[in-house]
User: Which sequence fits this backbone?
């Protein structure tokens, strides 16, 4: 398996060499051709997916997982449309990040260039296959796609269609390759293909991400684990706070930017706790609260240490009353995964202290945690949300899939 | 040892929380106080260094290593002056990288914030201790300094002085801490203190860097291995080429931006090879060449595969004649460490092909490889030269020691 993965990576490197010299027009034409081909081959893709779904169902897979796995013509059309959107975005490659003429006359420019070979290791939805391939292609990099075995047939069908379209468009098919998912070791070989793979991006649950971070010798961008907090300050507009808590928790529970924990300043606890508990319970949310929350309503479950650290991804929320914004910041620095925190306050002083004090990829002031998203931020495409500090933090778009190089032009300068 | 390293990292995290809220004026005042204190304590620092030198000499350490280790009042004054230079640089923290008002009225800003806790693992010169501490402090991060055991007393003296100055300046002394070097495992514990340390930067030889990359679970920025090439094109000004080859190879041989390999286009080989061989030999350089080079002069040593991959850091150079710029690019993509490549050519077409085709942190067109340097690039301070593609590539200054966060301000927006 190692030889197979390394051989794929070597083919990808060669393809990346070609992509680095490919114009935006040619990349966009290929993306449009890929979108056309996906639409044209919808039946074949859905048929392959039917097999995946059948096998998953026979294995007793739960309905919500089946729902994520399932493709129908509308879903195929949606990700094909995503490819056209990416074709419409500016090319990040070639952007001059900075430049100057040095005192000795050297003209220095820092220029965005492709990353090279990117490996995606992911679970779940087959639409990630098309999205990731398109983002990497547009950013000038070859991609090695290692999805889950449960979606292997769907992914293979999508990748075959995209590769054929690349070939027709005159670009190397090896810019998009599937890495077999039937053997667990293929992921490990990818993460350790140092010198062949430039970047590994894991997308999936906390377990997958931890495994990649621990085993990888290739640089990794960690994505998407979100234990997000909403802090309702003493100076909060409580109607606004209620709407933001409800939206952050219940708008969609299975996503990384959903709120998992609620902190309330003691000065507003008497008024706000009964309201927020009632509203959350009406929405079907189970509250895991501290003594103050438990005292308000018998259905509040006493929170454990584990609750404060949990990313529920369900209709559950941990909740606590704090004495001050500093206590809220301390709690968040202790338990947060560094994804998104929100504060509801009308105080400029408190919001400044909060935004400077927490240490997360995004901070929302008087807005829902759900806004941390490449689409909402206007990036046009998103390959994931980074929760690490190196290279990219927060939603990652095309720019984050590039690196830079310094090009220095002189007329014979020596030191 | 693990508990000791983790305890230091936890203290550093607390100090980092304070530094994140410290103004530029206060950080600069602390840097000036540290510089004053280093000058005032020169005798104590040099005395500690004398002990290190004595022990190294007794252990039979070579003269060039001793020379790197040795401190005298002039060297202490030099790194104290470096601290004042860093105080004079703009603060990277707080810089707005991008910002916009989203269609729903949310005001989004991406802002530079401190990295948090940075671990430096390094060999050799004690001046790195002062430089690294100052750069991290200015960038708002706490630093854990793990130098070599051979410089342990010198480093301890420098760190003690800087910590005392921090305290006097009202900043937390734990922003700068020494990690014991007498136990090899301390470096491993640093690299694996995930969640406590945000970034590890190894600075030293290829062996150290490989060990850190392989063992670290904390994100790493690889620095400084340089197998740099000079390619003399068919359209080169040969006088300029000769000057650039000589300067790149011989200006300073022990540095990562020195040239280690020479490629010459066959069209100019007849004229250029005798000249460059004579000039390099006059400068004391041993040439490890291919058949074409060997045919010109009996003292050229036949090059092996290992020579093309070598970072000599000495008066040696590998050399080869190539048929085309594409063969030069192919050779470089195969053997280069991705640091700096230079081309000498008067052809715009060829230089464009070369700069787009090689895959390195810096490309010099008609200039010496020696210019890849934070000081030469005008960054004011440099913590190393990154040869990886993630986060920072090329010389790293203050900006590269920061991360960013998205601060989004609304008035109650929900999705």
Assistant:
């Amino acid at each position: 398996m190692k030889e197979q993965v390394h051989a794929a990576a070597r083919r990808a490197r060669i393809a990346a060499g070609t992509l680095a010299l490919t114009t935006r027009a040619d990349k966009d034409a290929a993306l449009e051709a890929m979108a056309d081909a996906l639409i044209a081959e919808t039946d074949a893709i859905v048929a392959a997916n039917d097999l995946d779904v059948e096998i998953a169902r026979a294995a007793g897979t739960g309905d919500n997982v089946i729902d994520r796995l399932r493709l129908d013509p509308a879903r195929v059309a949606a990700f094909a449309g995503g490819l056209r959107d990416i074709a419409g975005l500016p090319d990040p490659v070639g952007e001059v990040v900075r430049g100057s003429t040095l005192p000795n006359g050297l003209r220095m420019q820092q220029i965005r260039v492709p990353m090279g070979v990117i490996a995606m290791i992911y679970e779940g939805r087959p639409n990630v296959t098309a999205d990731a391939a398109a983002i990497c292609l547009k950013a000038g990099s070859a991609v090695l796609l290692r999805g889950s075995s449960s979606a292997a047939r769907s992914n293979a069908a999508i990748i075959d269609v995209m590769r054929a379209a690349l070939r027709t468009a005159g670009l190397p098919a090896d810019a998009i390759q599937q890495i077999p998912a039937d053997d667990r070791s293929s992921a490990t070989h990818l993460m350790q293909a140092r010198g062949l793979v430039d970047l590994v991006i894991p997308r999936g649950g906390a377990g997958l991400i931890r495994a990649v971070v621990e085993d990888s010798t290739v640089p990794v961008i960690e994505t998407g684990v979100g234990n997000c907090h909403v802090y309702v300050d003493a100076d909060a507009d409580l109607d606004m706070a209620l709407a933001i808590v409800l939206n952050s928790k219940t708008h969609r529970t299975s996503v990384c930017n959903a709120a998992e924990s609620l902190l309330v300043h003691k000065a507003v606890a008497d008024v706000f706790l009964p309201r927020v508990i009632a509203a959350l319970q009406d929405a079907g949310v189970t509250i895991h609260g501290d003594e103050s929350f438990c005292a308000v309503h018998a259905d509040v479950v006493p929170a454990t240490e584990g609750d404060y650290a949990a990313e529920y991804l369900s209709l559950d929320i941990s909740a606590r009353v704090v004495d001050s914004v500093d206590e809220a910041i301390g709690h968040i620095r202790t338990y947060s995964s560094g994804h998104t925190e929100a504060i509801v306050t009308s105080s400029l002083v408190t919001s400044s202290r909060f935004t400077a004090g927490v240490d997360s990829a995004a901070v929302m002031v008087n807005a829902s945690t759900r806004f941390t998203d490449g689409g909402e931020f206007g990036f046009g495409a998103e390959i994931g949300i980074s929760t690490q500090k190196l290279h990219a933090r927060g939603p990652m778009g095309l720019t984050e899939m590039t690196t830079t190089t310094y090009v220095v032009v002189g007329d014979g300068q020596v030191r």
Notes: The first helix of chain A runs from residue 2 to 19. The first strand of chain A starts at residue 96 and ends at 101.
